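Handout, section 4.2: multi-component inputs.
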Amino acid sequence: EVQLVESGGVVVQPGGSLRLSCAASGFTFDDYTMHWVRQAPGKGLEWVSLISWDGGSTYYADSVKGRFTISRDNSKNSLYLQMNSLRTEDTALYYCAKDIGRGGYPLYYFDYWGQGTLVTVSS
Amino acid sequence: DIQMTQSPSSLSASVGDRVTITCQASQDISNYLNWYQQKPGKAPKLLIYDASNLETGVPSRFSGSGSGTDFTFTISSLQPEDIATYYCQQYDNLPPVTFGQGTKLEIK
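Output:
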């Protein structure tokens, strides 16, 4: 059974930093592109970032570019999101999501999601 | 970036009704369009991919159609368990992946 379990969400002050983690199991982690998608309270879904199966390619939404860094450790079946210079508008539930495409052929949509970890940016 | 415009933003219907949601892309995205269902407090779930293909295990009352810029998502006979928010998502012009703003479906 595929499982994605996010952690690391806390309350942090504006300008602060945070690292989110996503532990994956039930599939061959290093075969798949992985994504972070967020959802502000009561709002819609916003794609944040993706990383290729081997970590060689990364992409970011304009809203987080230069502040967030996505990474992965395939030996630990884990995905990360380093979040710096946090703003109040970064407050959201952050989901880790698995791309449906395999290997070097991501399809840029999602067949499995975690339950999310809540990041609150507030003074 | 490609903008996705969903309508309506909310919808109230009775059990057994046919329900239709539309999604319009700001430019041609061929059939690179998916539909997700998100129940309260839960993660989204993929229902339809490539505009009209039903994901494995999804009931056949759900369907999708369209290509280019205009897409439709239909529930042929609304069931109580279909209460959720539905999102379209394009994956033609990347990055970024973009979602519609969502349609909240309620039972009348």
